[in-house]
Design brief:
This protein is α/β, with parallel strands linked by helices. It has helices at 10-22, 63-72, 96-107, 116-120, 125-134, 167-178, 223-231, 246-262, 265-268, and strands spanning 36-39, 53-58, 76-79, 110-113, 140-150, 153-165, 184-186, 194-203, 215-220, 235-238, 271-275. The chain has two domains: 4-117 and 246-275, NIF3 (NGG1p interacting factor 3)-like (Udp-n-acetylmuramoylalanyl-d-glutamate--2,6- Diaminopimelate Ligase, Chain: A, domain 1, 3-Layer(aba) Sandwich), CATH 3.40.1390; 122-244, NIF3 (NGG1p interacting factor 3)-like (Udp-n-acetylmuramoylalanyl-d-glutamate--2,6- Diaminopimelate Ligase, Chain: A, domain 1, 3-Layer(aba) Sandwich).
Length: 286
């Protein structure tokens, strides 16, 4: 959408402006990603209601999250992953994602997806991951983006630790800050200590093609990408795709979005930003 001014609902326009202030669309990789306002639902907000406008944050917009949004009477869902990714030729109830879109439109709940703009933003999800595995910038001698986009922003991160760390220490650190009992790893050869780490939220293989580091940290690698890393003597820590993203909503995005929306209270009423309790990784380890 070229201009937020054509969004009819003032509530939706306020939320979209706030999200874009934090994560500008110019930072998203529009060559393949489908970011922006994906569903502009008819505004069914009861203006006489004293309740705050509910903004629901989620990684994936599943049927369970749709049920949650409807029960919360949300005005807007900010879904990190875009529910519309490829062109739609129809909207029917035979497809679960299309059914979700139709239900949301009927309930007056709009959907916005920032996706790779959050990845690229300084202070976004990749910097959050970098802070988590390194212990913070005070423990680093350098941090750079892998693929620059604008100013200092860009996709992926490479960090250099001031002091090399043992592989297992970094694994334990990742488990702790992501709140995971298990992760999938490829150990560094000969228990080599780690000084340099390449980081990418979600699926990072394409980002890591030309990097020379001791360790890869991402959500997922394919079988062949993992083999290639092992062959090169590079260790890796993977956590399943969305486990490298979901905690960012709780730890960072909820607070920042609430702060920006708070400045709009006098014009457009109060806003409540909540993180979905029904959003979860589709994989389980048993």
């Amino acid at each position: 959408m070229s201009s937020n001014a054509i969004i009819r609902s003032r509530t939706l326009r306020t939320v979209v402006n706030a999200v874009q202030k934090l994560y500008p669309q110019a930072l998203a990789d529009r060559t393949w990603d489908n970011t922006g306002l994906l569903l502009e639902a008819p505004d069914r907000t009861d203006r006489s209601s004293p309740e705050a406008h509910n903004v629901l944050l989620t990684i994936d917009l599943t049927k369970a999250v749709v049920d949650e949004a409807i029960s919360l009477r949300s005005s807007v869902i900010v879904a990190y992953h875009p529910i519309i990714f490829r062109p739609l030729k129809s909207l029917t109830l035979a497809n679960t994602q299309q059914e979700s879109l139709l239900r949301l439109a009927q309930e007056g709940i709009s959907v916005y997806s920032p996706h790779t703009a959050v990845d690229a933003k300084i202070g976004g999800v990749n910097d959050w991951l970098a802070d988590g595995i390194s212990g913070g910038r005070g423990e680093e001698s350098g941090r750079v983006v892998i693929e620059g986009i604008k100013d200092d922003s860009g996709m992926g991160r490479i960090i250099t630790l001031k002091e090399p760390k043992g592989f297992q220490e970094l694994v334990n650190r990742v488990k702790g800050f992501l709140g995971l009992k298990n992760v999938m790893v490829g150990k560094t050869p000969g228990d080599k200590r780690v000084r340099t780490i390449a980081i990418c939220a979600g699926s990072g293989a394409s980002m890591f093609k030309n990097v020379d580091v001791d360790l890869l940290f991402t959500g997922e690698l394919s079988h062949h990408d993992a083999l290639a890393a092992k062959e090169r003597g590079v260790g890796f820590i993977t956590c399943f795709h969305t486990n490298t993203e979901r905690g960012f909503l709780r730890d960072v995005m909820k607070r920042k979005l609430a702060e920006v929306l708070e400045s709009e209270v006098e014009r457009e009423g109060e806003f409540e930003v909540v993180v979905s309790e029904r959003d979860m990784d589709p994989f389980e380890i048993v």
